[in-house]
Amino acid sequence: MKKKVLIDLRCEIDLPYPMFGHGDLEYTAKYLEQEAKELTDFIRDHRSRDRYGISIIREYRDLCSFCGTTYEEDTDGMPLCCDKAIQEWEAIKSNKVEAINEV
Ligand SMILES: [Zn+2]
């Protein structure tokens, strides 16, 4: 049975996003980190708020570089998303086997 359980907590603060560069997440992250630092400094100027801190959390997901979908593999490590990923995996696997045989 599926059961909804509270396992972790995060705080959320809206910061102003950059006017440009939305497509570049790393650029946006650095921009938001600067905004967070400035807001943290602003808060620290006020009494009894020394423990406040604001962090930008980068969330990562493994995507296939060929088809762009979420990268998933079977129990042998073979990718499941597309033929190109499988071909690359087979090529890497056979090279490793050759390298082991050469030793
Ligand atoms: Zn793929």
Structure explained in plain terms:
With about 100 residues, the protein is mostly helical. Among the domains are: about 20-55; about 75-103. About 40% of the residues lie in helices and about 0% in strands. It is built from two helices and no strands. It is elongated. The protein starts with about 25 loop residues before the first helix and ends with a helix. The model has no long low-confidence stretch (mean pLDDT about 90). The protein binds zinc ion. Zinc ion binds next to loops. Zinc ion binds near residues 64, 69 and 85.
State the low-pLDDT regions, or none. Answer: none
Subunit organisation of the chains: single chain
State which percent range the strand residues make up. Answer: under 5%
State the separation between the terminal residues, measured CA to CA: 51 Å
Coarse shape: elongated
Number of DSSP helices?
A: 2
Estimated radius of gyration: 22 Å
DSSP summary, beta strand count? 0
- Residue share in helices? 25-40%
Which structural class fits the helix and strand makeup?
mainly alpha
Identify the bound ligands. zinc ion
User: How does the major sheet shape up?
Assistant: none
The arrangement of helices and strands along the chain is HH
Mean pLDDT: 88
Descriptors for this entry?
0% strand, single chain, elongated, 39% helix, binds zinc ion, 103 residues, mainly alpha
